[in-house]
Amino acid sequence: MGPRTYAVPAGSGIEVAPRVRHQLRNHTDEDLEVLVVSSPRVSGNPLARRARSQQRDRSKLVVGSYVRRTRPRDLESVVEVEEAADTRQWVGEGGMDWHKQVLQDGDMEHWVLVDRLDRVYAFGVLAGLSEPGAVELRRMVVAPEGRGQGLGRLLLRHLLEQALARPQVTRVWLDVGADNVRARSLYRSFGFVAKEAPPGAVLLENGLYMEWSAQRH
Ligand SMILES: CC(C)(COP(=O)(O)OP(=O)(O)OC[C@H]1O[C@@H](n2cnc3c(N)ncnc32)[C@H](O)[C@@H]1OP(=O)(O)O)[C@@H](O)C(=O)NCCC(=O)NCCS
Fold this sequence. Notes:
Helices cover 25% and strands 22% of the residues. The protein has 5 helices and 7 strands; from the N terminus they run αβααβββαβαββ.
């Protein structure tokens, strides 16, 4: 850090002041896990970005994974993904009955992302498909063990393509927790913009309305 080198033992931390050049080295053959707490922006932190992209390069989960329509027999895995730690608090209502209803609702589409062995790693739901103009991205979740490897990107691209394949659809909107840094950063990188919610939109508590519009692209 700056001109000096510090040894940081396992379980301890080091504070890097703003604008101080820094670098992290691991001199062992063991994997190193680093927790970066960054203020104000996490996604702009080069160390955090590098750590994520290295993790992505190491795991090739994204190769061979694809998105397909959800079948009733996938729902157990879907609910398992939804109930996982660090997930439920970021999404609204859910559970087996909710997903069963979605599968039967002609106005909604339920999608799963599976790996080569057909294991469910993520799912997403589109809603409001019969309405002209705007489609809602109602939910998207990647299983904790699949995160940080590009699966969220793969799924979001697919959901957007599905929504925009309808000629009458020019906007895709969603509702994301204002403190959901990961999801907001993902949506922003696809061109979603935070806006004031239109009258009548029902948002999560602490929810932020974001929209992708063909007019901007
Ligand atoms: C949000 C979520 C879907 C992202 O899925 P993912 O597979 O981890 O995302 P990817 O690996 O495809 O990363 C895509 C982008 O997401 C953002 N992102 C992912 N992890 C991040 C993190 N830990 N910190 C900040 N941004 C992050 C980045 O913009 C990243 O792009 P980059 O790596 O080029 O910087 C996943 O974290 C999740 O399921 N979270 C819990 C449920 C949830 O919040 N759903 C959204 C409800 S609106």
